């Protein structure tokens, strides 16, 4: 290794943190309060390292300014200090460290398979194996007339996708752009998104991440990206070029293109843990800078990590500096990269104070008060793996939540194992049992049935069991609680069976109809609208291949499903009765009027207490009154819409239902029949309609 240079840096300034280029020089600033010495390591084009000690220290921040060092410069840090795991100290200057504030990161983590003793320092130099931070300057990006779409929550339709997997097999995206930010911004991709009717793309993690050692040992890699290394840096592998730092500009161009099409960009962010894992994991950044500040350690034994995330460590946002880092990162992505919101992975871990989840704790309080972040979309995954971590329905007003109660109920209903329709009614109407008691709105519920984690929609109706052998863990990984149903035979080959194949397709239509007509915010997983499959794999986090990439050829095979989704989203956009901003009250807006919502049994009578407690019941009618909308328009005007009656029947046998008469309607028009009925058929109120086994029927009510 080269000897430390004798060059003396200019003092520079302690603020801002990270590497800041201006006027021909770069200022470096690193917070490391317990360090005894900090060396800045500069790498030239042939990867020769030059180490320069930072001589100035202000407010526990080591800093220096370097003339002639500019954008594209690759760098890292070596931090000297005590190695004392019993006190939580794990300084080791043999380890090259990524700057926590790096705006770009270059290179991969290459795992050295030599065993490491977590209780003793590893004196092997890590520089050949770890990524470099990159200096970023003003790229001169022209945002032009870019404006955030600011889609209201009640109008929002989320679409969860993977930047790489979404375009790797897209026939109209040039091969050199597939799997990149530029590929996602391609007109053919945007045309599909806009044509589908979604409003907001939710991107699986794009913070720079690396793969876990156990995956590298078995020759695979982390595909989903829930293994963050850099909270400010766009993941470099989604960049079309190879010039260090170019990923920043390409990400901005993607956001600009999506905004121009009216689409919001939501980031799935992982602040609850980092890629360094537990004590035996790689030292890449935070552990070597200040292990005690960045991670939750066992107060009885600080050599051990508290793990609320299942990854070996938990990022400690109760510490002021760790919290500052997260807040600076969030604001950066909004102000500089112009994203429109965030979905927080394992958000309960961020809300913990000392041990318990605390919705009045520092992280939640700071978010609530921040003038930038309180204006963007905030979505919680409202659980972690620690005690008391399940917090569905408990997040504050600004937050929406992934509602797994919705997911489970809808899955159970359509396999006729829900134990009645009582819970289904709550989910269809916005989950007031979860969100109404503290003044939240129906759009607090993110309604989903599938996500990246678990079966795709097609696999949900094709497999009873997970098939994760390709993951290399002997099918032990992934949940066993899939609430799925193969309809008689396991696997996709049964699609050719004339009894099974059509029924599976109908179930796809049933579930999509349920999601997109429920009150709340619907979320679709990318490719579900065209029958995407992962061949029964419900935990494909480590597969970067045709199993996880969206197969665009399915658009032709599942054209009926794709068209149904477009039709449903058009209905949802045109009719505010499906996008309620306040919870239903089950009573008329005006004396003598129709109730804002009513529930019907197949007899055409409103549901009774006995009906609600009948665990064998699998048919429910929901009437939404267009003259019962309880929110006013932007000028205070009353909002009036058409009224609709939705029947959901998960039983195997065909049945007849009576269509409610006065005061609900005089006639009904069939809008959607998932069993393939006549779309324009008219039905008289008081008469009957036939519901095929396992089907939905949506009718427009006419007075």
TrEMBL record:
The keyword Hydrolase is annotated on this UniProt entry: yes
GO MF, one annotated term: amylo-alpha-1,6-glucosidase activity
Region span, Disordered: 467-500
Domain of life: Bacteria
SMART domains: Aamy (SM00642)
Biased composition (Basic and acidic residues): 467-480
Domain Glycosyl hydrolase family 13 catalytic: 160-572
Keywords of this entry: Glycosidase, Hydrolase
GO terms classed as biological process: glycogen catabolic process
InterPro entries: GH, GH13_cat_dom, GlgX_Isoamylase_N_E_set, Glyco_hydro_13_N, Glyco_hydro_b, Glycogen_debranch_GlgX, Ig-like_fold, Ig_E-set
Family designation: Belongs to the glycosyl hydrolase 13 family.
Protein name: Glycogen debranching protein GlgX
Organism from which the protein derives: Phytoactinopolyspora alkaliphila
Gene: glgX
